[in-house]
Amino acid sequence: MQIQELQQQIDAIQIAALEAIKAASNLKELDQVRVQYLGKKGELTGLMKMIKSVPNEDKPKVGQLVNGGRTVIEEAIELAKDGLKAKELEEQLKREAVDVTLPGRTQVMGNRHVLTQIMEEIEDLFISMGYQVVDGFELETDHYNFEMMNLPQNHPARDMQDTFYINDELLLRTHTSPVQARMMEQHDFTKGPLKMISPGRVFRRDDDDATHSHQFHQVEGLVVAKDISLADLKGTLDLFAKSLFGAERETRLRPSYFPFTEPSVEVDVSCFKCGGKGCNVCKHTGWIEILGCGLVHPNVLEMAGVDHTVYSGFAFGIGADRIAMLKYGIDDIRHLYQNDVRFLEQF
Length: 347
Fold this sequence. Notes:
two-stranded antiparallel ribbon, alpha+beta, rod-shaped, single chain, seven-stranded mixed beta sheet, 2 domains
């Protein structure tokens, strides 16, 4: 092959390669051009293989021509690569650009659950009256949940509380009264009275409907000291009702039955919707039942090691779910547990 003819081939390959480099729209296409002209089987590389058929005196010249063409193509590829990288970076920046003048996204803030608010309100009231707040176990023993509450085995009153049993001895507590039993055992009454509330979740086997749930919340209270009377209980709960439902509320006590108190009473508060005149909320009676209570049964005191001839006490049980429903006019207890933000945001 003549030097002049080789030069023409190199020029033609170089022109074609430069056109292909110019037409490449991305790095992948540019690399395909490189392989086509400079790869192991590339067009320009193929000319180098022809050197062996060239006379020895012309081989340096041929090598110089081929390498010169290769250098031109490589430099064009590198220049095009820099341009394509800059172009891709610019497009990426456009895609990922943030308009700092746009208003920020509003972050939805949570708030305390209505039950939490009610229980904290009750706790704050009793703390201000000198009570201590005591937590207990949700998994309890039959001994503390029933027997210490004057409910021995086979006692008919156990039917009042359908229970989730884990085994013969362990169960999910049906009330927070076991906390009171444990505290009476531990308290040193020579150093002063026991004044406590025990808030928490309790469990009973019940069919869920608008007014019943298999789990709900209680705040039970207990005062044990010398010379405690029903009048002390009445005054305490009267203050509770006025604090939670309004200063104009009145309370009344009605005889009832609970195994752990004697006498036992239920507490009604004058209707906060009609003021006692009678409406659909109070079923036209003017009164709404809010809790059960009574003087601590002597058996309960004695089983906790407290001498009932020296000390007496009162106890009460507040259903936080019921208080929330009454206070805010909630018609279905299931709303409190379904986590519907539209409902919870109202409180």
